[in-house]
Amino acid sequence: LAKDPLWGDAALVAEAPLSWPSALERLRADARVVLATPEAFKLPFPGPQSYEEKRWTIAYGQSIRRQELLARLEAMGYQRVEYAEAAGEYAVRGQVVDLFLPEPAEAVRLLFSGDQVESIRKYDPDTQKTESFVDSIIVLPITATLYPDPPLDKREEGDRQALPPPIHGRRAGVESGVLSWLKKGDWVLSA
Q1: Average pLDDT, the chain
Q2: Which of 24, 96, 141, 170 has its CA 20 to 30 A from that of 33?
Q3: How far, in Å, CA of 79 to CA of 73, rounded?
Q4: CA–CA separation, 179 vs 45, rounded Å?
Q5: Where are the alpha helices (DSSP H) in the chain?
Q6: Cis amide leading into 141 (omega within 30)
Q7: Strand, coil or helix: what is 133?
Q8: In whole angstroms, what is the distance from residue 36 CA to residue 21 CA?
Q9: What is the pLDDT of residue 181?
Q10: Of 124, 139, 122, 137, whose CA–CA distance to 83 is shortest?
């Protein structure tokens, strides 16, 4: 989708959790238009605060225990494979951890010296050749299990609310779901 000068990027909310990082990053950047199916409103989509807590920045020179890194990637929904060739995959070889980020969709290679990130470089997943250095990356969660708030249709009847227009960015008492991201004047298009 093209960026509109007035509305910014549109956030496309699909049912597959691997598509959520793109939508969440656009919402985080104040997308003013949300495209979603009716089913998307029932998804365990994180609210802004929950999502912000789950984003993870890894920077050059940072200390991270390797087991902590691998455990956190697994918990965030990444799948360990022999070669990271698609979004949501990671691979480990010695002191190298390859990670294919979903948003922006790019493969990065972390080189460790002990517990310290010695370098972060983009790489071509087809040739496995490294390219440019980067100072840091943001690892985004790609699993719904990180977001503990139940979808709207699974809440207790007393907690369930209709879906009124947002009131200054939040519906009263609801901090999760697609609608929790909206601000006054935003558009929601649903088919």
Answers
A1: 79
A2: 141
A3: 8
A4: 9
A5: 20-28, 48-54, 66-75
A6: no
A7: strand
A8: 15
A9: 82
A10: 124
pTM above 0.90, yes or no: no
The amino acid present at 77, given as its one-letter code, is G
Contacts of 29 (CB under 8 A, 6+ apart): 8, 9
59 has which bridge partners?
136
Strand duo 10-13 + 33-36: pairing: parallel
Check residue 144 and give its pLDDT.
59
Q: Is 102 helix (H, G, I), strand (E, B) or coil?
A: strand
pLDDT at 154: 42
What is the CA angle 51-32-38, rounded to 5? 75
**Cβ neighbours around 26 below 10 Å, total:** 23
Give dist(CA 162, CA 42) in Å, integer: 12
Structure-token match 């990180």, residue found: 146
pLDDT mean by block of 10 residues, the chain; 191 residues: 58 76 83 81 79 90 93 92 94 96 92 96 92 95 59 41 35 62 80 70
| Cβ–Cβ under 8 Å, residues 171 and 161 | yes
- Interatomic CA distance for residues 169 and 156, integer angstroms: 23
